[in-house]
Amino acid sequence: MKTMSTLEQLSQTTKGLQQTVATEFASLDLAALNFKPAPDSWSILECLEHLNRYSRYYNSAIAKAIAQNTGGTDVTSISYSWLGKKSVDMVRPQNTKKHQTVKHMNPNNSQLDRTTVEEFLQHQQELQQLLQQARGANLAKKAVPVEFFKLLKMRIGEALEFVVVHQERHVQQALRVKQQQAKLAAA
């Protein structure tokens, strides 16, 4: 896949996620944002907090990788390592298999408020900037340590895709929670 078209696609997806969260969730009251369809499932805010926890790590790790690998290399496509391919495929929204998240990334039963939504939107702005900066970086460089095992590294391009696809998955999950709540309210 061509690098610029991939980065543009990721940028468009990120803008769409930002818009979805702003329009679908920002106006909801706190009770609706904290509604859980089941005790072991996540609320809208827990879905967003999970993504915030990942963004706190990956936004800075990707920024550092881009800064250290800018210029000099003309990369025309994003290639995937076994780790990157597996990571991206695992979090794709189309992959309906549930995965256990690592304990410190699991926000279940957290006390959350509107700042969670605001933080998510701020992370999206940061990610947009990273996607712009990535246009001048060697996206094939293995430079982004994996959050749960930092000895393993993803390529910059696949790490960017992982972050965006992972966000897509959980924003869709949050939308399903909103739909479930609406069905209960209508019944």
From TrEMBL:
The record's listing under SUPFAM superfamilies reads: DinB/YfiT-like putative metalloenzymes
What Pfam family is a match for this entry? DinB_2
Record domain DinB-like: where? 19-174
Q: What is this protein called?
A: DinB superfamily protein
According to its UniProt entry, this protein's organism is Pontibacter akesuensis
What is this organism's lineage? Bacteria, Pseudomonadati, Bacteroidota, Cytophagia, Cytophagales
